[in-house]
Sequence to fold (431 residues):
Amino acid sequence: MRVLLILAHTNTKVTSLHELIYNYLHPSFTLEQLAAITPKQHQVELVDMRYQKVDFEWNGNIIGISCRTVSANTAYRVADEFRRRGKTVVLGGYHPSAMPEEAKQHADSVVIGEAELTWPQLLKDFENGKLKPFYRQNRPVDPELIPSPKRMSKKFPFFSVASIQATRGCPFKCSFCPIHKVQGYKYRTRPIDKVIDEIQSIPSRRLFFVDNSLTIDLEYTKMLFKKMKGLDKRFNCYANINVLGKDDELLRLASDAGCELWIVGFETINQKTIDSIGKTTNVVKEYAKAVKKIHDYGMMIQGLFVFGFDYDTPDIFDRTLEAIYKWELDKAGFAILTPFPGTSLFRKFEKEGRIITRDWSKYNLKNVVFKPKNMSEQMLFDGTNRLLNKFYSFPNMLRRIFRDERLDLQRLINRSLQEISSKQLYKILGW
Fold:
């Protein structure tokens, strides 16, 4: 069979050259993972809507579309058009897993949760004329069965960034996080030797670990980093701040393995908020010490911050920016609190009558889709935008780039692209 796999994306028009380059050099891990779990007898074609157009004249057998909440409307439009032309369409990903009945209105079948076992079975059923309306993975997939992605693009290995996954799942239950709707709460680790073999097979020197956190199973991560030493790779990964601030051995091994940047969900500088959202790994008063320790080992840190929590007041923006400057964070991401379907936050706000729109295209971390408690919707929007513009001003971007003690040509190019792309990613006005 001919199988078309599509990654839905809201912005189907590339607005700048750097956006096109950045997207092209960061292949979709979702598409490559789906291609890997598709049985080899099928011919697979991929369309990444970040920089590719969908050909509705495509002449094949079945179409699989993956989407997040923000891209759900786009996915539905694409699915509806293909079905209008008589094609069989399957929807999967975060949003269809959270809203399967809604997704089914636009698809012949919906994959709920992880797809390693359900997607091959779905294709077999389709071939036999027995396609079911829903395919649900009820138990966490055995990590032994999680294959390496089928890397479709081998161009520009010097500059491209290859995504890789060593672990899956997250045991923490943060109220605003939708990840568990696909991956579940059970934390699982892939065999280290398989991960190392995969790393060695990747031509790109730069890696990005898509794992929710590499600081949950420390014994596993430390062994992984030990085996990565000498592979001449450079990588970024997610982590929990409490572990990074206390484990010198982990930081030393990470630095030796080639870690350049830790991405950390600080979420907020308000401890009351941290306690209320279930982020048990974070203690605000320990943030500064942890950042310094990471810098002492020659690595950078990117802090992720969310605004609009019930304890947030209008001064939260200026106080956050002061803290970021004081800690000398290398990068920062700013988001407006978004109650994604399937999360306890969504259920809470829905019960309280605070959801103001179900236009999923606005669920992009950049729009206000609920009623804040201690400020107006406009104040939340404007405050986040003002903070972003200050942090990503041109002088500040240059200052951060050239503060990097390990700067070389390749790192200069990558850091410049990251800074510019981050500003676009987190931009509020004009989106």
Observations:
- The first strand starts at residue 2 and ends at 7.
